[in-house]
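My current task is to audit a protein record that another person submitted. What it holds is a sequence and that sequence's fold in token form. Thanks in advance; the entry in question is below.
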Amino acid sequence: MRVFTIDTENDISVFSTLAEANQDTAKTDRFTDEGELGALAQTWPATRLVEIWNSLPGVEPVQRFKSRTTAVRRIWTAIQHLQPTGGEPARPVALKKPARAKAPGKTRRAAAPQSKAAKVIGLLQRTEGVTLKQIMRAAGWQAHTVRGFISGHLKKKLGLKVRSFKRDGERVYAIKG
């Protein structure tokens, strides 16, 4: 029977037996099945469940769960791949809340020199900016594609500060610099 432990830092470890889990001297809660995890979770704030989930490797982060039951079920399912390691705790699954994946300043690979993305970024770096129509012409995109590229790729993925304003009734974009 596998025994799971979770400490105050939301680190989850797995042990082969209860005796091994009891050797762990850290202040932890123990559980062996989804029901026991659910009973523990009844006393936790909902934000702790979200933090536990978001710190699990390979999961899609969430801002909240529909219910406590849903959170417990998803966390329980996600930790089932863990295997005990001898008499020592397994690699912690849930670590402290990770840094946001889309944090500004994150280093990204630059666009290929001749790519459409590189052309658009070059246009946006001009001091006077570039109109929506000019970007559409240069990249061969429709207006909604340009807006999506600016919002999704440049702002969210690359963390660039793109300024949008109107000049003579036309939408103009420029990279703040």
The radius of gyration is 24 Å.
